[in-house]
Specification:
InterPro entries: GH. This protein is of the alpha/beta class and 282 residues long. It contains eleven helices and seven strands. Strand 1, helix 2 and strand 2 form a beta-alpha-beta unit.
């Protein structure tokens, strides 16, 4: 997959891990070795590595944590990432809506902002060259958090995740971009794809979306250029290699994606993004 990204002409690869395998490396040696090898290979190909922390996708693993435990684990993970990988950038907090949903608990705006401050300061103290970020979705609480994040002097950039393309939410994106620029922060679209409201639970990435996905890539690139946004990271990269066959179970689909990558197959979405990147480089 990294080779395919290199062929596209991208500048870097954004990875969004949780706290494992770094929290319990002795129990997760195989996964740790995979991350080590992946990040080393990305760097060997002269691509930047960007990391973004999230609390994992298994609510059962964190259900008994209190906020102090949550914060302690995240800060320890950030420290390990800096010392082990020295990435180009680390996103400390993003999509608090998603994090709170997975954790099944609510955290105050002040606590999220304090975590961003502590995380950014930790990273800068260990390696001042690493860019630090925070941000997320265009929802009320997330926007109120962003107001607080922008007061953190060690924060370099604001991350926007673009999935919801309703008119009113784009007004909110506009506001978030304006706030960031007024505070002297750079803006980065860290995730983007069309809204993930798919018609059938077992038919998650059907082929009929392919032409629309190409339009979405073009639209987001244009949006980023007209707003002087630093970079864009498109999210559902499996669609660069294969779309889902009718009635194909999701588990089988992802196996087919791995096979498509191995076989060197590419979709029209991949080829379209390559043309977009070439046009942007001219």
């Amino acid at each position: 997959m990294v080779d395919a990204f290199k062929e596209l002409g991208v500048d870097g690869v954004d990875i969004n891990p949780g706290f494992e395998p770094w929290l319990h490396p002795e129990l997760n040696k195989e996964d740790l070795n995979k991350y080590d090898a992946l990040i080393e290979y990305i760097k060997k190909n002269d691509l930047e590595v960007w990391l973004a922390y999230h609390c994992g996708v298994d609510p059962e693993a964190i259900k008994d944590w209190d906020w102090e435990k949550y914060k302690k684990v995240e800060l320890a993970t950030l420290k390990t990432w800096v010392e082990r990988y020295h990435p180009a950038g680390i996103n400390v907090v993003h999509e608090i809506t998603t994090m709170e949903s997975r954790w099944r608990k609510s955290v105050s705006i002040e606590e999220w902002a304090r975590l961003v401050e502590e995380g950014c300061r930790l990273i800068k103290n260990l390696d001042p060259g690493i860019l630090t970020g925070a941000g997320g979705l265009p929802y009320e609480k997330e926007m109120e958090c962003l107001r607080k994040y922008l007061n953190v002097k060690e924060l370099d950039f604001v991350r926007l995740n673009i999935y919801d393309q309703w008119f009113h939410t784009f007004n909110n994106y506009e506001t978030m971009i304006k706030w960031a620029k007024n505070a002297g922060k750079k803006v980065y679209i860290g995730e983007a794809w069309r809204n993930a409201a798919f018609p059938e639970p077992g038919n998650v990435f059907p082929l009929f979306w392919e032409p629309l996905d190409i339009k979405f890539l073009e639209a987001v690139t244009l949006y980023a250029g007209t707003r002087e946004i630093e970079a864009v990271c498109f999210w559902w990269t499996n669609l660069f290699f294969k779309y889902q066959d009718p009635d194909q179970p999701t588990k089988e689909y992802f196996k087919a994606v791995y096979q498509a990558i191995h076989d060197g197959k590419r979709t029209s979405v991949y080829r379209a993004l390559g043309e977009i990147i070439k046009a942007e480089r001219r």
